[in-house]
Amino acid sequence: MGARSHPLIDYYAASVRAAIVEIGGERGDGSTSHFLRFAADHRLPFWSIDIAQRPSEHPSVITGTSGEDWLTHTLPTLRTQVAFAYLDNFDWPYASLGHKRWLQDQVAEYAARGVSLTRENSMQAHLNQTLLLEPHLAPDAAILFDDTWPRPSTAPGPRFDGKGATALAHLLARGWRVLDASDPAIERYDGFVLVARGRWEKRLPPPRADGWTWNARDDARDWGRAAAAAARLVPPGHTLVLAGLGKNAKRLWRYLRSTGVRAAFLDDLVERWPDLARLSDAELTASHHVLITPDSADDLHQRLRSTAAAAVFTVPEALEHDRSLARQLAAA
Ligand SMILES: C[S@@+](CC[C@H](N)C(=O)[O-])C[C@H]1O[C@@H](n2cnc3c(N)ncnc32)[C@H](O)[C@@H]1O
């Protein structure tokens, strides 16, 4: 829900060497259109399955069929291996959102299909789909579970919670490993866990010239693309310094973590991040490139421009730089 973890596939593009399957299609977060573009760019087969009947012009976007039905009856006939599965279907009834009208409507919608919208049933559906996928997975395979998150190490009980929790226990017991995950929490709306077996490598995706625009009010912005654009503004050996109050910078850092990009953060962030070095304004030097992540930060901009940092830039500036880079590469 609102996690937008699907852009992670761009960071693992070089490792996706067989088909992509999504269970739980487009419903506001843009996953299906993202995978359609990715599959077309990389000439890979892709199918998106959703139980809800929705108009679709694309033959590989199948609606009105459950993921379980499609995996049982259609996937075996396709004679293909699956390298990447995105499981984001049977909705998760967040405990802290139980009072929301839309969640009550969702419970009624599932009940009309004779299905009880419970956490147990959501986990079971994602486990069943994982078991049905297993015989068709490529040797190098990854599964991205949305609305799934690691629990704090101090919390008693299972290691993960959310839609994919029991499927993850199953896969990890069979030697799969966690490649990427949201930070641990008791409950989080933007949780995800990416697990894999075989060879998987995380790299910055290339710049793109197409017309995606930055909208500060859009909570489902593609931070994956913004992160790659920001990283490209920093020369090799220099450090990207994240300046902001937390949420945006954390989303962006989620994509850069483990790509080898050198990063630090300014000490006026609310929370500490154990995996990042902490700097003050006075410690900025000509090898630091400061990225401002809050959406309106004129004061911060002015303050940081008076430091010794090599450059200070915003996310829209990074994206613009990336677009012109992509145009130059295309023209060359
Ligand atoms: C959270 S939404 C998916 C959001 C989507 N990934 C996006 O980016 O907008 C969950 C979807 O799962 C679908 N769904 C629920 N149970 C399903 C099942 N058993 N098989 C396939 N789809 C299912 C619902 O119809 C709903 O569209």
Structure characteristics:
10 helices, Rossmann fold, alpha/beta, single chain, 332 residues, 31% helix, binds S-adenosylmethionine, seven-stranded mixed β-sheet
Explain what the structure shows.
This protein has helices at residues 8-11, 31-42, 67-73, 101-112, 119-133, 165-173, 223-232, 247-256, 298-305, 315-331, and strands spanning 19-23, 46-50, 61-63, 82-87, 137-146, 148-150, 160-162, 177-181, 192-197, 239-243, 263-266, 277-279, 288-292, 311-314. It is α/β, with parallel strands linked by helices. It has 2 domains: 8-197, Rossmann fold (3-Layer(aba) Sandwich); 223-331, Rossmann fold (3-Layer(aba) Sandwich). α3 (67-73) packs parallel to α5 (119-133), α5 runs parallel beside α6 (165-173) and α7 packs across α10 (315-331). The longest helix is centred in the last third of the chain and has 17 residues, at 315-331. It is globular, with a radius of gyration of 21 Å. The two termini are 40 Å apart. The structure holds S-adenosylmethionine. Residues 23-31, 49-52, 66-68, 88-91, 125 line the site of S-adenosylmethionine.
